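Long-time lurker, finally posting.

We've been working with Probable inactive 2-oxoglutarate-dependent dioxygenase AOP2 (Rhodamnia argentea) and I want a structural starting point before designing mutants. I don't trust myself to interpret raw outputs, so I'm hoping someone here can both generate the structure tokens and explain anything notable. Sequence follows.
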Amino acid sequence: MTRETQIGATVHCDKNFLTILQQNHVNGLEMQTKDGKWFRVDPSTSNFIVMAGESFLAWSNGRVHSPRHQVMVSGNETRYSTAWSSSLRGVIQCPPELVDEQHPLLFKPFEELGLLRFYETEQGFKAESTLKAYCGV
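Top reply, 14 upvotes:
Generated this for you. Predicted structure of Probable inactive 2-oxoglutarate-dependent dioxygenase AOP2:
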């Protein structure tokens, strides 16, 4: 990290179902691939970035990736972004059609609000995967 680089948002996964992000011309969003490689996301200002949250990961039984991401900004310009997030009310559970011998159940049913409350605890915040620590099978 250079002197001019600042952390805009620390490494995390969104806990909700889906996030839609739009930002100005100042980039800084970085995402981690499934195999652990980081890459910088440099969309145009007319693009939207759509990310699955951990609730979507659980609902899909691990078939939809919820990327770890962070924001690193440098320079003198201000980065502005707007995020819209969707949440589910009630119990989130994987549909039976997505569970079979090749895809055993990964997460117990849970409520998104419970996941968010767990994330606010020391154990939840320090967990490598809040979702696995909260309701992993």
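Before you design anything, note these points.
The longest helix spans residues 112-119.
The chain has one domain: 6-135.
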